[in-house]
Design a protein that fits this description.
About 30% of the residues lie in helices and about 25% in strands. Strand 12 and strand 13 form a beta hairpin. The chain has a 5-stranded mixed sheet, sandwiched between helices. The protein is globular and about 65 Å long. It is of the alpha/beta class. The protein has 10 helices and 13 strands. The structure holds oxa(dethia)-CoA.
């Protein structure tokens, strides 16, 4: 009889750049207030990469911490996936740069681009590799320097984002780990949340807005709340479990109001919801692994507990992962 192979988390890590930008600091840059930002988003501060500090630099630090927790040699990693929207270079991929920095050779390494859902997408891909026997130990990283694609003159967006990286190491195991992943996209919504130009679609003008994030916040908000509720139901149904069976929600950290709405629908208390948006702001693909790492390290998330991760982002993309930690 063949045994089911699961992807089981054996290490987590997180890294935030030293520099902190508070809401009060932002009051000096754009027409905003600490009160508005806290009330509408729950954000109090965010971390910003130093000049010259790249997405890969952040990813390296998070990965080292995950390797340390797992107590494994980096060379035993046989798959590297980096979720990022802010790669160091157009190419090579940030995953290849990370592979080089960690002294790993030969294993597949590639980036996944699904913006704020990137980590859940990457986790889903890594899980398929492990379940099919293609990989035994995967390093999955979400890393971003969103400050590089932020328009610091636009109060609609610049108060929302931050930089950081989170990592997990997955290992093939007969013990339960990731139970299911669910990923989706709908490209119809391209212009509600996007950067207008890129390497192939060149900026039409020299304006900074052409090269930075633009978002119709309240429209994104409505779709996000509805979609996250649906993906949570889809995940529970697929696993034939009830809301009450969940121990933890580790959501993408875009807005505290969105997080609370999702948690309420799942009948989870604030104590069962990992929140970092107040300290980190929205770090896109890094937000879930950063929150997960924090709650694992401080002992809130315990072995054997059921954890639901969910995310929504540009594209639109959305997804979830249910795991027994
Ligand atoms: O991670 C990927 C997915 N992203 C999300 O899920 C983000 C979803 N959206 C949101 O989180 C919220 O929509 C925002 C936090 C972006 C905005 O909150 P909102 O309650 O939807 O506000 P709004 O966009 O409807 O704007 C309300 C008012 C506007 O003024 P008027 O037109 O009512 O006079 C804005 O101009 O707030 C104004 N405003 C600000 N005021 C002070 C917008 N940004 C700011 C600001 N400071 N930073």
């Amino acid at each position: 009889m063949t045994q089911t192979v699961y992807s089981r988390v054996i290490g987590t890590g997180g890294y935030l750049p030293e520099k902190i930008l508070t809401n009060i600091d932002l009051e000096k840059i754009v027409d905003t207030s600490d009160e508005w930002i806290r009330e509408r988003t729950g954000i109090e501060r965010r971390h910003i990469a130093q000049d010259g500090q790249t997405t890969c630099d952040l990813g390296v630090e998070a990965s080292k911490k995950a390797l340390e927790m797992a107590q494994i040699d980096a060379k035993s990693i046989d798959l590297i996936i980096v979720a990022t929207t802010t790669p160091d270079k157009i190419f090579p991929s940030t995953a290849c740069l990370l592979q080089q920095r960690l002294g790993i050779k030969g294993c597949p390494a590639f980036d996944v681009q699904a913006v704020c859902s990137g980590f859940v997408y990457a986790l889903s891909v890594a899980d398929q590799f492990i379940k099919t026997g293609m990989s035994k130990r995967a390093l999955v990283v979400g890393a971003e320097t969103l400050s590089r694609i932020t328009n610091w003159e636009d109060r609609n967006t610049c108060v929302l984002f931050g930089d950081g990286a989170g990592a997990v190491i997955l290992e093939a195991s007969n013990k339960a780990g990731i139970l299911s992943t669910h990923i989706h996209a709908d490209g119809e919504y391209e212009e509600l949340l996007h950067v207008p130009s890129g390497p192939s679609k060149l900026p039409k003008t020299d304006e900074i807005a052409e090269r930075t994030m633009s978002m119709k916040g309240n429209e994104v908000f409505k779709v996000a709340v509805n979609t996250l509720s649906k993906i949570a139901s889809e995940t529970l149904e697929a696993n034939q479990i009830q809301k009450e069976d969940l121990d933890w929600l580790v959501p993408h950290q875009a807005n505290l109001r969105i997080i609370n709405a999702t948690a309420r629908k799942l009948k989870l208390t604030p104590d069962q919801t990992v929140v970092t948006v107040n300290k980190h702001a929205n770090t896109s693909s890094a937000s879930i692994p950063l929150a997960f790492d924090e709650a694992v390290r401080d002992g809130r998330i315990q072995r054997g507990q059921l954890v639901l991760m969910e995310a929504f982002g540009g594209g639109f993309t959305w997804g979830s992962a249910l795991m027994k930690f």
